Amino acid sequence: MSLNEILGILRRRWYFMVPITLLSLLAGGYLYETIPVSYQSQSSIALLDSTAVARLAPTFGNPISNAGGSLIVTADVLIRALVSNEAAQDLQSRGVTDRYTAGFANDSSSPLLALSVTGTDRAKVHRETNTLTAFAGEQLKALQAASKVPSTYFVQTAQVVLPQTPVSQSKSRYQDIAAVLISGMVGAFMLSILAEGVNVVRRRSRALRTGEPLPLPAPLETGGFLRRRVDATSILTVYLALAFFIPSNLALPALGGVGTPANVFALLGLLWYLATWLGGRIRPAPGTRLPRVAMCLLATAVLLSYIADATRMSSHEEVLGADRGLIGLVVWVSLVVLTSAAIQERSRLDVLMRRVIVMGTIVAAIGYYDFFFATNIADSIHIPGLQTSVAQVTAMDRGSFTRPRSTTAQPLEFGGMLAILVPFAIQQALDPVRRHLRVHRRWGPVVIMAGALPLTVSRTSVIGILIIALIMVPRWKPQRRWTAIGLMVTAVGGFKVIIPGLIGTITTLFATFLSNSDSSTQARTVKYSEIIPYLSEHPLFGQGFGTFTPDLYFFTDNQYMLTLAEMGVLGLIALLTLYVTGIHTGGAIRRLARTDSDRELGQAFFASSLVALVISATFDALSFPMFAGMFFLTLGAGGSYLGFVRRDSQETAAAATTVAVPVRRVAEPQPVES
């Protein structure tokens, strides 16, 4: 369906668009006049160790201060005490009735606490901030007195930033207004398209009853931008360009991490599909239901966790996180639906996958620049209206090497995203259809993307490339297999010569991991036991998808642990179902394939999904928009390819049966009409 056709539908259904749009505008104006402006005041306090710490601590010590340490543990204990229900009741009795927060100050590695109060009365907010700041010092003294610590060993608080003059916070106000306007216009749009779809169904039913020819869609128009028919491959190409070339940490301020331009465009793509489908212009491709069924299970788990979050005493930040989680879910559904149901021709799906590899190769090449020049090129990209959604995005080092992240938010996302795309680069390089191309055009993406994985100096990337080799190489013929093994050994030697110390650093990473002497590994494994209390409180549905954020709790560095905390056991089952669906899709394509090219394609989907399954245990994979987007896009593409391969197999079997029947029944040769 072209944009001109969509505009024509909206014009014909003006009786939906005009009244609902006007009501939305009136509701937005009413909210603008009635919602009061909120104000926020902030203050900061630092923890200072006692004067007696310089001397040898007595045997009783101070269990809270951890004398001689950095006092980070002390600050964490104080923050938890300030946000407890008992502290909230005590503050309410002192007049602090507005919403307040307490946490570590941003971009600070020292025990520096940031306190804030948000309310609608400017003078009252300032008084409450003073009260909260004084209460923090009293609470710290009370904690130490309860442990019977002598006053000479008390940790003290010092005000670094005095309570500031409250400033207006209009963001939430405009968010509510924008939500009403967007909901109204989208509702009017969907009602108009639905009415058009009902009309199309009635015309077809009437034509079937009267024997008239069925109404067909208008022929393809090429004159002008608005008249040009849009398909799913074109929409997904724009999504890929936005996802790959706009840093994934840049997002719309109102939506947080899920508000990347690529995700917003994916939502528009879903509206296009619904308009085209309800308007009778397109039908879901047959045999592609499996990925969408898996997404239904995930959506059920997310919605149940959202209800679980609504039934408990969650903070304002957790409510916003749950709302962002719903938006992220709709984005993922959009990608799966567009790739599995909306692409009607295999040639267009092949074009999409080639574009994925080309753009992924460019992102990998940017990673080389970051590695060799010790910088982050994404830091120099600033787009008006977007702001970073990831705190402390700077160049990360490991050993003597700078870990590249290209346009992703983190080196782990960079390595994970390339790891799930490398199998498709290999498949396209081996495709007989592309054999006429020069060697550098076929194998260049494989070399660039696979070569960028060790540069991240992470176990995740190395595990990904090892899984790809173990899955794909043994399936090849002996000549190709030994050639690949020789090239991989040569590549390792080349890295040792070109980048001295890189292979040794990676080897040390795995050696310390196996001996459990790596601080990074220890920090992650310690957190596994910390998840258990949250899981025991909400074992089945979790505490809410998108609510277990690092600024409120801690980094999990494990997608499965994060899923257990946010969506419970049901969410973990849904997540594993997604990965198993991708693996099953790849295996089914390989079993049904009648050509070597399709067998390699099925093996690529199998390897990519298995990589995603394994490396999700090494970082919170779906929290990163670029990795999540590529995973769900390939998941839907696998379902679409399976539908094409299955239909080809059925047609071939039917043709063979048709030819075989006359041969058995006819005794003498008969002329066969071609």
From TrEMBL:
Record carries keyword Metal-binding: no
Subcellular location per the Swiss-Prot or TrEMBL entry: Membrane
Membrane spanning residue stretches: 14-32, 177-201, 236-255, 261-278, 290-307, 327-344, 356-378, 446-473, 485-514, 560-580, 601-619, 625-644
O-antigen ligase-related domain ranges (all copies): 446-576
Coiled coil region boundaries: none
Keyword Transmembrane annotated: yes
Protein name: O-antigen ligase domain-containing protein
Organism expressing this protein natively: Actinacidiphila oryziradicis
